[in-house]
Amino acid sequence: MNTNATECRHWVFLHWKLQGLGLTLLAFLSCYPGAFHYQEYLFFVLLCMAIGVAVFQGNAFWIRNPIDLPLALLVGWILITIPFSVDPAYSFVEWRKLVARVLVFYWALLVLKHSVGSDDWRFVIWAMLAGVATISIYGMWDFIHRGGTFVDRDVRAHIPYAGSPWLATYVVIALPYGIARYVQSQNHWEKMVLGGVCSLTFLAGVLAYSRGAWLALAVMGLGYGVLRRNQRIFAWGMLSVMVLVSVLFGIGWLGYLQGIFLVHTIIDRLACSWLAVESLILSPVVGMGFGTEIFNQVHPVDPRSDCKGNHAHNVFLLYAMGSGVSALIFLLWTFAVIITKLSHDIRVGRSNEVTSIKLAGVLMALGYGVAVASNDLFTGSLAHLFWILVAVGFSLSCQEERPAHHTPESP
Prior knowledge:
Layout: H1 2-29, H2 36-57, H3 68-81, H4 88-113, H5 120-145, H6 164-184, H7 188-207, H8 211-227, H9 231-253, H10 263-282, H11 293-298, H12 315-348, H13 352-372, H14 380-401
Helix pairs in contact: 1-2, 1-5, 1-14, 3-4, 3-12, 4-14, 5-6, 5-7, 5-14, 6-7, 6-8, 6-13, 8-9, 8-13, 10-12, 12-13, 12-14, 13-14
């Protein structure tokens, strides 16, 4: 009897180790939008296994966390508004995709809960950095190969099966974690590798020519000064942003980076956003329908001929237009809780390494929020990676709140 119980514990222990490896692999694959369907297959297999083993153990498979309520309200409200969509079938399909992305978050929390005391969360960070470094190298090679220059935006660094805004957004997500690991590392060779990774990703973000990502990086820099309550850092950050903007305008005046300052590209974004606002005004309660393609169905042609992008360019406006003001409120609430929860933990955290990762999580959520406010990229592989990293931050908070003698179950 004791032998059977020991064997059972052994297999359960190996299962959660396998889940940790799966989470690491998913974090790496999430850097490749072209492999999104493989990510989905891997995730659903691992999710079913995790739920089954958790039930077998008699443990809860739903890990409570601070964003339970806003997430539940967001998902539930969007479901309620689907019958009022201009294309209910399409909106339901998009809603199912949203549910799958939310499940990635809860699955990652479950896996990390069962890996207390292990290095799974470190492996996740390293896998993500390796993935972003790889696509950054490809983006820069492709930029050079296609004859990219600093004169205009005709050629921009991008990644396979996705555009330059995707690459720039990956840079926004990864850079805070790369810097955090660099600052905390005590190994000379590790610091060299991390310094190279941070430099590569930053340069790739520059060559992607994404104004939204550049703004996100600036906001993260200012956010760091605010979170650390360091007036000197904040002042230097503000000064650096002003100098950078002045330099960019000077470069533009000299004939470089011309596309960055073209007024008609800014007018295009504003016009598309205004169309989304007009749709929201017409249906502020239930919206026009959830999903990115709803914008094209509602506005196949801009009567003023200003919106040529054919999409809202803004995730928050897209949710508001699609499912009403309530959806916008619940989405903003979710981001706010993520940022405030991890910000509080930064002040009370005991471990420098853990605190730096949670600080990176706050800056990532802040920067990602700014980035998706100019490019509607709260979807696919990017959303998977975002939710996995949020789960890492929340799991580290839970570990610090547990008693010090708590250790993971082992055979």
